[in-house]
Amino acid sequence: MLITADMKMADLIHLDFQLLAVIQRIGINLGFREKTIDEVCKENDVDTDFFIQIARSFHDKDYFPKEKFFTFKAEWLIHFLRRTHQCILEYKIPEIEEKIKLMVEDLKETTRNYELIKNFFTEYIRELRVHMELEETQVFPYVLALSECIESKTKTEGFEKYFNEYNIQRYLEDHNDIEEKVFDLKNILIKYLPPPTDSCKYNSLLFEIFKLEKDLQDHSKLEDKVLIPKVKLMENELENL
Ligand SMILES: [Fe+2]
Ligand SMILES: [Fe+2]
Hints:
Order of helices and strands: HHHHHHHHHHH
Number of domains: 2
Number of helices: 11
Radius of gyration: 21 Å
Strand content: under 5%
Bound molecules: fe (ii) ion
Number of strands: 0
Structural class: mainly alpha
Largest sheet: none
C-alpha cells in the first residue's frame, strides 16, 4: 500500500506499527481520530511531504528518494536526528541494560559469560554516547549555522567565530559505523552463550538488540546519505555566494 497524504494517520500505524517511532520523533502526538496524514501534519506544523518521504523510506527499505530529501530544510532533518538520539540514549539503551541485568539470574552459574556481555555493552554505550555527543555539540550546530548563512546570504558573525575552519568532510572521516558492534553483540548472544533457562527473557533481550540495530542503521543512513551530501551542497552554495 502506498503511503499518501490523504491516507488516514491511524491506518498508517496499522500498516506498519514501527512507524510509530517516526511519528513520535517528527513531533506528532497520538489521538488522530479520523484525520488524514496531511491534516495531522498541518496541525503539528510538520511538512507533509517530509513526513511522507521519511515514513515511506522507513517502511520500505528499497525506497530512498535521496534527491528529494536534499530539498527539505536541514533544520527538519536535524530535529529528527536529535529526537532519535534522545530516544535511543534515554529509552532504548536503558531498556536493554535492564534486560541484561535480568539475565544474570539465568546465567548465575556462568557469571563470566554474563560479565562479558555486560562489559561489552557498557563499553558500547560509552562509544555511542561519544558518537552522538559529537554530533549534538559540533556537527548539528555547524549545519544549523551554515543554514542560517545561506538564508541570510552572508556569513553570520557566529559562523565566522565558531565554524570558519570547520567542514563536513572532517566529520565524515570520523563518522564510524556504530551498528557494527551491535551485530557482534547479537552474535555473542546467538552463538556463544550457554542456553538460557528462561528463553523468553533471553529472546526479548535479543529482540530489543535487533530493533536497536535496525534503528541505528536507518539513522546512520539518513546521516550518511542525506545529511552529509546535503551539507556538502550547502557548503558549495556558501562558497559561491
Ligand atoms: Fe546520529
Ligand atoms: Fe552518526
